[in-house]
Design brief:
The protein contains eight helices and seven strands, in the order E-H-E-H-E-E-E-H-H-E-H-E-H-H-H. It is 45% helix and 12% strand. It is an alpha/beta fold and 170 residues long. The two termini are 34 Å apart.
Length: 170
């Protein structure tokens, strides 16, 4: 288990260049609030990312939004650090609550919620359209089949389409 480092201590060490702060959140999460100077290496790719090993002069401090994800993956992160490492106590949200500098960006609605809204709207459109043109029921069936396929395989074409939309770009 990685030891905890308070946001204030981490800020002082980061400002002095004595630590590397690595944010393990996904890029769409980091866009909302991020710590200036933090490296972004998402947990989903951290095993394959070129993460220079930590050493006594420059240990790594891992962070996420609340600290829960970092705590759950503590053993894996400790191995990947290959040297001295900590986890930021309370994550980026504790950093912001402590009044330390953060960068705030534009954050689109999460893709999963966009998928739910889009799929629900298409189902309702298909059901309402049946009164005007009966074959519209197939739209509802197609959306249902797509959701089942996404659930079984983990591949969601609608999610990929939505992630390419301009409002989901930085």
């Amino acid at each position: 288990m990685l030891p905890l480092l308070s946001p204030v201590d981490a800020f002082q060490k980061l400002r002095e260049g004595k630590i590397r702060l690595v944010d393990i959140r996904e890029p769409n999460e980091v866009n909302a609030v991020r710590v200036p100077g933090a490296e972004v290496v998402p947990l989903s790719v951290i095993k394959w990312a070129p993460l220079p090993p930590a050493d006594e002069k420059l240990p790594i401090v891992f962070t996420c939004h609340s600290g829960k994800r970092t705590s759950k993956q503590s053993d894996q992160l400790e191995k990947l650090a290959a040297g001295p490492a900590w986890q930021l106590d309370g994550g980026v949200s504790a950093w912001a609550r402590a009044g330390l500098p953060v960068e705030r960006g534009h954050q689109a609605m999460p893709i999963f919620r966009q998928i739910q809204i889009g799929a629900g709207a298409l189902v309702l459109l298909g059901l309402a359209g049946v009164f005007f043109w009966p074959p519209m029921i197939w739209l509802t069936a197609l959306v249902g089949a797509g959701l089942v396929f996404a659930g079984l395989t983990g591949f969601c074409g609608f999610g990929l389409l939505l992630s390419a939309m301009p409002w989901n770009k930085k």
